From TrEMBL:
Catalytic reactions of this protein: UMP + diphosphate = 5-phospho-alpha-D-ribose 1-diphosphate + uracil
Lineage, uppermost ranks: Bacteria, Bacillati, Actinomycetota, Actinomycetes, Micrococcales
Record's function text: Catalyzes the conversion of uracil and 5-phospho-alpha-D-ribose 1-diphosphate (PRPP) to UMP and diphosphate.
Class of this enzyme: transferase
Protein name (record): Uracil phosphoribosyltransferase
NCBIfam families: PRK00129.1, upp
UniProt keyword annotation of Magnesium present: yes
GO biological process: UMP salvage; uracil salvage
Alphabetical keyword list: Allosteric enzyme, Glycosyltransferase, GTP-binding, Magnesium, Nucleotide-binding, Transferase
Presence of the UniProt keyword Heme in the record: no
Amino acid sequence: MRVHVADHPLITHKLTVLRDKTTPSPIFRALTEEIVTLLAYEATRNVRTNEIQIETPVTTTTGLAISNPKPLVVPILRAGLGMLEGMVKLLPTAEVGFLGMVRDEETFQPMTYAERLPDDLSNRQCFVLDPMLATGGSLGAAIEFLFKRGAVDVTAVCILAAPEGLEKLERETEGRDVTIVLGALDERLNENGYIVPGLGDAGDRLYGLV
Ligand code: PRP
Ligand code: URA
């Protein structure tokens, strides 16, 4: 498993506002989108392309086009939905599938309540979006789901992660082609399974308490 932590002052600046508990939902949503667009640049570094020939007004030249089948972007509902626009801004031809998951706040086990993905993901590059990689239960289950459907490589884009969750994923994805792109790697999990210092409950901060 490869882990890439973004190291850029613009991302850190935006993350600082995101972490601030006084930041209201409209600003939180806008910043989430902006941070994901910046992370998407790194996450798509190995997007599959093929060489094509084109005519410029001056001559014939070669360039690159994103290969078929097009990449699949999978936001994990609910909070991952807040990352979708930021991702497809850079990858507008991607297809989008959905996984709905919620973590049991007592056991920290993820429960899948919705799934809308192609049956066959063979030869498909997948990009999973989830802002918080805490215990790693939700992202681990999502990645496993995609590999079971035939995905060959999975890149996860997360805004924050805890070391405990990363270690769990590292063990579970051994031998698989998995990349994790992070806005920041935080200190630890607290006794409630929240990332510290973190930003609180990402879904609630994006969409309110439901
Ligand atoms: C949050 C978050 C992740 C998960 C992370 O979602 O968006 O999916 O928790 O925790 P884990 O790494 O310990 O599994 P939540 O279950 O709160 O659902 P929501 O997106 O609907 O708010
Ligand atoms: N889910 C969140 O939204 N935040 C955390 O810190 C952990 C899990």
